[in-house]
């Protein structure tokens, strides 16, 4: 663990203009924010109703009615406001800021006199405040509100939202802790921990940091708090799924420093790991940091999908066991991959190890992007790697898998989470140290920063997902500034050209996956880097039973898939020829501009089964076929049909 971590760069100093990412980041201000605002106000027909804004009006005594929605419904508007904050930081907009200010004022009017803020408990169950931490999501909701307030403060300089959440955070600090007379509980759904750390960093109030540390340190210690809580007189269960409670579901089965495997609800886990990483750095706690490294290794090397999805179980959205990665009924919640990216980014900052950003990139380019349609108006909550629409039936074990993206959800944590992630993409692109600019993701645009007190800028022109060619223009006010370029794990070959430096590629040191370029003169420095990113077949560890004997296709950071619209129905009857050539074609007018991959294979013929027999002693017959694969993130944007990532290998 480094004594000084790498730092992100304020979003206002980063401009993204990238032919791959613009199709998604460009949706945030123009589509996602207004579309989701309409939903939060229940104005969109044929979509799940939100009740979110109405709940705040009722809590503020400005509306009539009962609370509607999930116990954590407030978080939808919290994440919406966080997305607005990041958007305003990059692109100021007086009307959008006015709308956000009005929403913040409404939230303030809904706040109780003692600082408490949660419309479910204010309206529906005030007597149950803090009495069901296992299921109540009070601290989870407070966490997302706090993150939004910090983001809005950084974006606008306005303190009203920050003050609202400081009042609530002060109440939380007074309520929870080891001291006698305080509640010795911790959140059932982690989130407040990382939010309190962000609030501490924004305000300097160490009570917030101490309380975050208390929540992490006390979790899983001694007799389980949630099991004791359930024995209280008048305890009221909120979710039927929690009847036979498994403490590993909430990562409270062991003290966090003794946890060695990624367990339980995937989103809870990665949000907790984010806070653990932050605290390990801030307190320079090596034991806590080693727990983070161990959990990361287990999660990404034995429990993660090729797409960067985590949480394979459709029941309780959780991790199961090593190598249990089914394709057609997995969960892989979009929020879980967002949390994975947040955790990986923190670990990269602390270690200066680019391998963490390899996983972050995988999650962002695949699972996170598959969670949103290219028009920004429908979403996946669940991200399977194989879909047969006919068996995605309600009231079965497949009901969580949707063959088409949905306009909204009754539990809608993913859509606004995607919005805030796309709006804050710049936080993943670059890090800085005293005299070095680290390039993590190769996204076209420009960043302006300071290194060693001197101004520096970098312009990037990237064609990573097609040719792998990238042009960099690094300009500094003084000599001696350095660039650290991430060498992706998939780039087995790469070349670098730095005019003015008569060096071989081997002369540039590579440490933990970053190639360091130093001794750059003052002024403009142009350089070209090209990564080898040919499409290629990959196989899974045979212990991954769902993928044994199968192939997938990767190209650079992108995972590919077959769709019925290109390859016909019954994709399970397709066998790919790994010995054949993969032909890449950039198709500008397809799916916003993508590189397709065509290859040969065979398909099982069904002519011997025309009598409708279910079983029989009949030989397999094959026909030659040409197959076409498209990037996984783009699936489901044309006709509804089958999809699969893993294909049987022709032997």
List keywords for this structure.
single chain; 651 residues; alpha+beta; six-stranded antiparallel sheet; six-stranded mixed beta barrel; 18 helices; 21 strands; 34% helix
Could you please describe the fold and organization of this structure?
- The chain is of the alpha+beta class.
- The chain is built from 18 helices and 21 strands.
- The protein has helices spanning 22-40, 52-59, 74-90, 94-110, 119-124, 133-136, 138-156, 160-175, 192-203, 206-218, 225-229, 266-282, 286-302, 334-351, 355-370, 414-423, 426-429, 564-567; strands spanning 14-16, 386-387, 430-432, 436-439, 445-451, 454-463, 469-476, 482-486, 494-497, 510-511, 514-517, 523-531, 536-538, 550-555, 558-563, 574-576, 583-587, 594-604, 622-631, 643-644, 647-649.
- It has a six-stranded antiparallel beta sheet, with no helix packed on it.
- Helix 1 (22-40) packs across helix 16 (414-423), helix 2 packs across helix 4 (94-110) and helix 9 (192-203) runs antiparallel to helix 10.
- The chain is globular.
- The model has no long low-confidence stretch (mean pLDDT 96).
């Amino acid at each position: 663990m480094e004594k000084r971590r790498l730092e992100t760069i304020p979003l206002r100093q980063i401009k993204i203009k990238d032919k791959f990412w613009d199709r998604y980041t460009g949706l945030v201000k123009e589509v996602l924010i207004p579309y989701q605002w309409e939903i939060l106000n229940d104005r969109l027909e044929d979509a799940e109703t939100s009740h979110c804004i109405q709940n705040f009006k009722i809590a503020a005594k400005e509306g009539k009615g009962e609370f509607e929605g999930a116990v954590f419904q407030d978080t939808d508007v919290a994440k919406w406001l966080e997305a607005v904050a990041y958007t305003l930081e990059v692109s100021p907009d007086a009307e959008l800021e006015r709308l956000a200010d009005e929403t913040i004022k409404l939230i303030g009017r809904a706040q109780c006199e003692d600082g408490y803020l949660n419309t479910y408990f204010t309206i529906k169950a005030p007597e149950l405040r803090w009495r069901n931490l296992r299921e109540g999501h009070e601290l989870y909701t407070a966490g997302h509100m706090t993150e939004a307030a910090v983001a809005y403060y950084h974006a606008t300089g306005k303190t009203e939202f920050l003050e609202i959440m400081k009042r609530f955070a002060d109440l939380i600090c007074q309520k929870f802790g080891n001291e006698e007379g305080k509640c010795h509980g911790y959140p059932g759904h982690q989130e407040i921990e990382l939010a309190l750390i962000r609030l501490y960093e924004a305000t300097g109030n160490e009570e917030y940091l101490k309380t975050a540390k208390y929540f992490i340190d006390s979790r899983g210690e001694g007799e389980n708090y949630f099991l004791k809580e359930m024995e209280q007189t008048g305890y009221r269960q909120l979710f039927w799924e929690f009847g036979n409670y498994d403490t590993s579901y909430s990562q409270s089965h062991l003290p966090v420093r003794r946890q060695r495997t990624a367990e339980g609800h995937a989103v809870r886990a990665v949000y907790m790991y984010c806070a653990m990483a932050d605290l390990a750095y801030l307190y320079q706690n090596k034991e806590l940091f080693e727990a983070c490294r161990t959990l990361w290794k287990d999660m990404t090397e034995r429990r993660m999908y090729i797409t960067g999805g985590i949480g394979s179980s459709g029941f309780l959205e959780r991790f199961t066991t090593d190598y249990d990665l089914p394709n057609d009924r997995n969960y892989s919640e979009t929020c879980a991959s967002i949390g994975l990216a947040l955790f990986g980014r923190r670990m990269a900052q602390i270690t200066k190890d680019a391998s963490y950003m390899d996983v972050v990139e995988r999650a962002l380019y695949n699972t996170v992007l598959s969670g949103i349609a290219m028009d920004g108006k429908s979403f996946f909550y669940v991200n399977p790697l194989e879909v047969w629409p006919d068996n995605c039936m309600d009231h079965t074990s497949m009901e969580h898998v949707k063959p088409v993206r949905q306009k909204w959800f009754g539990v809608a944590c993913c859509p606004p989470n995607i919005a805030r992630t796309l709006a804050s993409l710049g936080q993943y692109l670059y890090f800085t140290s005293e005299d070095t600019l680290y390039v993590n993701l190769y996204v076209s645009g420009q960043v302006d920063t300071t290194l060693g007190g001197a101004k520096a800028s970098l312009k990037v022109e990237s064609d990573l997902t097609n040719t792998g060619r990238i042009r960099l223009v690094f300009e500094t006010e003084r000599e001696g500034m350095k660039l650290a370029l991430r060498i992706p794990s998939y780039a087995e070959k790469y070349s670098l050209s730095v005019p003015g430096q008569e060096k071989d590629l081997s002369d540039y040191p590579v440490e933990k996956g970053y190639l360091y370029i130093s001794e750059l003169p003052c002024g403009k420095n142009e350089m070209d880097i090209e990564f080898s990113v040919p499409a290629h077949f990959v196989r899974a560890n045979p212990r991954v039973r769902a993928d044994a004997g199968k192939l997938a296709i990767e190209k650079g950071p992108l995972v590919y898939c077959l769709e019925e619209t290109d390859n016909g129905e019954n994709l399970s009857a397709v066998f790919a020829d790994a010995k054949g050539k993969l032909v890449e074609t950039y198709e500008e007018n397809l799916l916003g501009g993508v590189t397709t991959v065509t290859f040969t294979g065979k398909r099982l013929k069904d002519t011997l089964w025309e009598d409708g027999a279910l079983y029989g002693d009949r030989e397999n017959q094959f026909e030659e076929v040409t197959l076409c694969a498209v990037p996984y993130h783009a699936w489901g944007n044309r006709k509804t049909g089958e999809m699969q990532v893993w294909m049987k290998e022709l032997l």
